[in-house]
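Suppose a classmate hands you a notebook page containing two proteins, each written out with its sequence and a corresponding row of structure tokens. How would you begin to make sense of it? This section walks through that situation. The first entry is reproduced here exactly as it would appear on such a page.
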Amino acid sequence: MRKNYVLLKQYGLALTLLLTTTIIIYSCKKDLGSSQLSNAELSDLRNWYESNSGKVINDRFQKMKPIWDDVFVSDHDDQIVYELNLENPDQVFQVINATVVKEKSSTNRNLIKLLIFKNKKTSKIDYGVYQSILNEGSLLNLEQLHYKQMNGLSGKVMYYNFDGSFSNGWNYASGEVTNSIQPIEQSIYLNAQLDRLSRNQQKGTSSKEKLQLAYPDECIGKITEYGVACAGVEGYMVCNVYEKGSSYFNACGGGNGKGGNNGGYQPPGGSGTPYFDCAGVKNGKAIDSPCGCIGGTTGLESCMQRDIIDSLRGYPCAQDLLRRLPNLNTDLAALIKKTFGTNANIDLRFSIDNTLKNTATDGRFDGLAGTSPSNGAVYKILLNPDVLSKSSKEYILATMYHEALHAYVAYAQSTLSDDVFAATFGSLDFNGGRTLFKEVDGHFELAANNYLNGLKDAILAFNPNYDTGRAYSLAQGGIVQLSNGAKAVNDQERDTTKPGYTGTKCP
């Protein structure tokens, strides 16, 4: 009996110590927990929300109103964070890299909250943030996950500024931060898909149909908001999922939480360890890609664009021009459609032809270099190195447009039937030379005017200070028969080693 009493006494002492330790730890931590706030504190939160809720530039969360009767409070360094669940009348949910969206399974894997941050020193509210938790692992009760406390989560946590714009995010594996996530432009995401499609087509790894459904490179992703709309009468409702909007991100930021606020929100210009992109820009949007650093301040939007620029290695002025014209292919396609009324998938590959040196030929079409991911022809255009080294940038730009137009027409002539070609390009004059449009009674027809004015506008968009008349003369070169004055302008801009040019000289 005495032995049992001693054991009981020992166990009782151990239990007392355990309870005491637990109480001490909890009281020191004093952060995570649901709280019935004081009326004054709750009033401050509500007043801040009401006065700022009108400053929304994106409606992705606009109808999601805070539920004020249960607020989760946590203590983080110099801030108190208030977490509020949201009313969700449109049943908004988010999905990463969605192909087929299933409402029930997707909503179980996403939870969106409102976080309000209050400064402990000033007792003023710093900002509000929307937090989206996206579970990509085994099922969890997302209600039990809180700011910087993502126990067991394998997935992503995304933060949106209070105005609805995407701020930053984090990858998690088994509850631990692995690396940061940064926003990118939609064009970078789309070009990453095309780059991957192009690379896989060249390798012959898959059919185009499969590749169109494939995700882009694992670093580049898309997060899409969906809502659910229902219509009908009681007892018979038909509900459909619809897309509300999208954000685009680079999920390969700094490792182990070193790319920012270690699992937390990164306010604009913010606190914490800053994230630096591959171009060395603080909180920049450049990304590492298979061809190197693109996006952000690099001036490059795709690997295909880098390939074009690299093909002119040794001619930095022309490379810089292409870097400043990331939408050259799209702009050319739009101009051709405006000129001829036909859709064109334009994909250019410029390179150097040293045989054109010391000649009057600015460039030439050298056939096809393949097929682009959009099923358009890839035009191989050879340029005169004298033009790239001696001409003004405005003349080089006009030459690129001219050669693209010649290549497009030459390819169409070789592939279309005579009647289809005549119906589309019947106004063109093929006289064995470079002239395409002819004058009729001293005037150019509509197609010619559309092209000439479109190219003139492109030159002026590149250099708004350039003379309008000279821009029109450059647009005419190689397209129509030049007047003596227009020929003089083209000669002056073609060789900036001589006086008379007014365009931008290559260094």
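The notebook's second entry, a different protein, reads as follows.
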Amino acid sequence: MTATPIPTSASPDRATEPCACTGARHGLHAGGHPAGAFTVTKLFDDLPCCHRSWAHDGRCVYLHGYERSFELEFACAELDPATGFVIDFSALKGVRARLAEQFDHTTLVAEDDPELPLFRTLAERGIVDLRVMRHTGMEGAAVWVLAEASRLVEEATGGRVWVSRVEARESRKNAVVLTASPGGR
């Protein structure tokens, strides 16, 4: 686990400006850490699933699979006063479980896929473990992961920690990165 403080401006004219995160002055917070945000990352991998991009004008129109992985970055302005951590990774068990429920040996189909009724029939017959998503590609997966992980982490930390970035990877060569908009948590 690597905690990286995001540096703030060290210019003298900013030294007396209130810190946007807690109202503390730039320099050190009462807890002794630099003003700014701390981040840690956690990798969630071993999530094999298949999908198809029915509207794609190429081979991705066919059902195909990847072992997906998601690297999530968690951020906070104040460390946990009891542990000094951004987040105790044991608090992320719910995130891991939710990702496994969605992506572990499942078949992802878009909600507007014209073959969705066929996939529903396959699911009813126990041939696929169907998950219907707005978009089944890695961009859609990143959006879904950001929303779900944000909800779970906010609940676990009382809003002290937020998900600041999701890297959704379908292979060692291909990934998409979704960064939460500042203040948008």
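A careful reader of the second entry would note: Strands lie at 4-5, 38-51, 64-76, 106-110, 130-133, 161-169, 175-179.
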